[in-house]
Design goal:
Pfam family, one: MerR_1
Structural class: mainly alpha
Domain HTH merR-type: 10-78
Organism: Microtetraspora fusca
Largest sheet: 3 strands, antiparallel
Number of strands: 3
Distance between the termini: 77 Å
Keywords: 2Fe-2S, DNA-binding, Iron, Iron-sulfur, Metal-binding
Shape: elongated
Order of helices and strands: HEHHEEHHH
Number of helices: 6
Strand order of the largest sheet: 1-3-2
Strand content: 5-15%
Radius of gyration: 25 Å
Protein name: Redox-sensitive transcriptional activator SoxR
């Protein structure tokens, strides 16, 4: 018979879902991906260590800033499943992902500015507009395009 401390330290899938706000289907998906782990009871029911709550918080917070699940998975593979992600892990992840986030922000700002410029012009020309015809490889051959319809 398991000791009472082990039972207290575990959550059912319903309890984990309720406490974390993550649907049970997502919990099962995360488990298949190896992001969280459970043990199975004699009746084949999942039991999650309470540290899964912090792992889920780490996953959801990371996803909310656009970090792909595959990248999150790469970080969490170094943290044992029964151990909560630490403040140090958050800081390291922030350092690693900060540059990628800043690059994404800069790209989005350029896209916003380019779109605002294009909308201001209103031409939507296939000959000149970079939003309509980005990286036009045939532009040097003049208009119309050298293809027969």
């Amino acid at each position: 018979m398991p000791d009472s401390d082990a039972i207290v330290a575990e959550l059912t899938i319903g309890e984990l879902s309720e406490r974390s706000g993550v649907p049970a289907s997502a919990l099962r998906f995360y488990e298949r991906k190896g992001l969280i782990a459970s043990r199975r009871t004699v009746g084949n029911q999942r039991r999650y260590h309470r540290s899964a709550l912090r792992r889920l918080a780490f996953i959801r917070a990371s996803q909310s800033v656009g970090i792909p699940l595959s990248v999150i998975e790469g970080v969490l593979e170094y943290v044992p499943h029964h151990v909560s992600p630490t403040r140090e892990l958050w800081l390291k992840a922030s350092e690693c992902w900060g540059e990628a986030i800043n690059t994404r922000i800069a790209t989005l700002e350029r896209m916003r500015d380019q779109f605002a410029e294009c909308v201001g012009c209103g031409c939507l020309s296939f000959d000149q507009c970079q939003l309509v015809n980005r990286d036009d490889k045939l532009a040097g051959q003049g208009a119309p395009p050298p293809f027969d319809s």
